[in-house]
Amino acid sequence: MSIPLLIANLLTVFAFFIHTFVGDGELQLLIKKQAQPDRQYRSTWTMARCGWHWLSTDLLVASILMFCLNFLDLFPQESAIILVLGIFFTAYGLVWLFTVLISPPFKRRFFLLGQWGLLLVIGGLLFLAC
Questions:
Q1: For labelling, which of 7, 50, 87, 96 has a CA lying 20 to 30 Å from the CA of 117?
Q2: Total-model pTM
Q3: Could you give the C-alpha distances from 115 to 42, 79, 96, 102, 118, in angstroms and in order?
């Protein structure tokens, strides 16, 4: 068992549950706040929600894969898989940070939209584990 992999796994499971349930609740508020959302708004909102849960699926699959890597002996190239997961989470973190940087500024945006930090921590833990 790898402690960095276990911590990365726990953080990813936590992120999955918060993202899937709390985040979806926040998305629901956006559609409910519109008195009469037009077709374009509903279409854009639906695409955003689908993309949102696409990431939820990524977090779930990564969580299951990390669990299998840490507790089961299923894969012959575990280090390579952990490395790919590390690259995956680091890339997500960097894309998130870049998007925050190019978006219109608001007070404390780096802390309010600090998921990039969590993703980079998970990526770093995975690099330590491989």
A1: 50
A2: 0.89
A3: 26, 25, 8, 16, 5
